[in-house]
Amino acid sequence: MPADARSPKKLRSNRASLTHKVGYALRHPGRVAPYVRRAARDAYLRLKHPDHVGYYRAVMASDTRRNPEAAVGSRTHDRWLALGQMQFDYLIEHGLRPEHRMLDIGCGNLRGGWRFIDHLEPGHYYGIDISPDILIAAKKTLADRGLQDKLPHLTITGDLTFDFLPDAHFDVVHAHSVFSHSPLDVIDQCLAHVGRILAPDGFFDFTFDRTEGEEHVVLNEDFYYRTETLLALARGHGLRAEFMEDWERRPHGQSKIRVRRGDSA
Ligand SMILES: C[S@@+](CC[C@H](N)C(=O)[O-])C[C@H]1O[C@@H](n2cnc3c(N)ncnc32)[C@H](O)[C@@H]1O
């Protein structure tokens, strides 16, 4: 998503509405055919996979087959590098140190992950994802970067209960461009369980596609939420939650929320 997606006008638009779609098609006639192909794939995959995780796993399989970097949202290799750098720089500025333990939810093909793996002590990076195809691409990124000695954990998951992970373990939990593709029940499950695995002073940062108008979904793939919805969901699970104003200054289309354990200092 381009950075101007956070302009006041765009923040209010409902991309799922017919008016928006017609206006968009008139402004960008060349994008109509790709959109129709995507809508057809969406309809087929929704029929085949009624559950969201199964559906999105199939979307990732199809996208990764074509190009793993595009599958995680980067149209060019330079953008892939820049987006990873942006994630990395932000967490370094917010105190990520080599001895910290980090969980990267929806780690994709390690766009940001390879930089975190390089920075952290061996075995301190955990990446989980629902897509086996993108995790295979992640292993290639790891090998290409020569980071085998860092022994990161890369694990497939079918849910966000974190039941295989220990209590109070992670200093930083991170989900970049994951809730932008997640229905509310998936986010709710994550927020219900993340407090257990966070270290007492740890935090969980996630990005989301923000709307200041009506909440909406485009093709079951892109979910737009109001900030208050997600803050309230987190607080309902006893977590402290804040909107990260300093992330808004970055050239990125999504916004960021940070949650901490309710009993943190
Ligand atoms: C847009 S990509 C971003 C990948 C990575 N975070 C990055 O910034 O490069 C979204 C990733 O989240 C994964 N994903 C989507 N829903 C998920 C879920 N419920 N649990 C874990 N991973 C999920 C997808 O398979 C995909 O790899």
Automatic annotation (TrEMBL):
Keyword set, alphabetical order: Lipid metabolism, Methyltransferase, S-adenosyl-L-methionine, Transferase
Superkingdom is: Bacteria
Q: Which residues form the Methyltransferase type domain?
A: 103-204
Q: Which InterPro entries does the protein's record reference?
A: CFA/CMAS (IPR050723), Methyltransf_12 (IPR013217), SAM-dependent_MTases_sf (IPR029063)
Query: Where does the record locate the signal sequence feature?
Result: none
GO annotation terms (biological process): methylation
Please state the Enzyme Commission number of this protein. Answer: 2.1.-.-
Sample GO molecular function, one term: methyltransferase activity
Q: Which SUPFAM superfamilies match?
A: S-adenosyl-L-methionine-dependent methyltransferases (SSF53335)
Q: Does the keyword Lipid metabolism apply?
A: yes
Q: Does the keyword Transcription apply?
A: no
- One Pfam family this sequence matches: Methyltransf_12
Q: PANTHER family per the record? A: CYCLOPROPANE-FATTY-ACYL-PHOSPHOLIPID SYNTHASE
**Family (UniProt):** Belongs to the CFA/CMAS family.
Query: What name is this protein filed under?
Result: Class I SAM-dependent methyltransferase
Its taxonomic placement starts with: Bacteria, Bacillati, Actinomycetota, Actinomycetes, Kitasatosporales
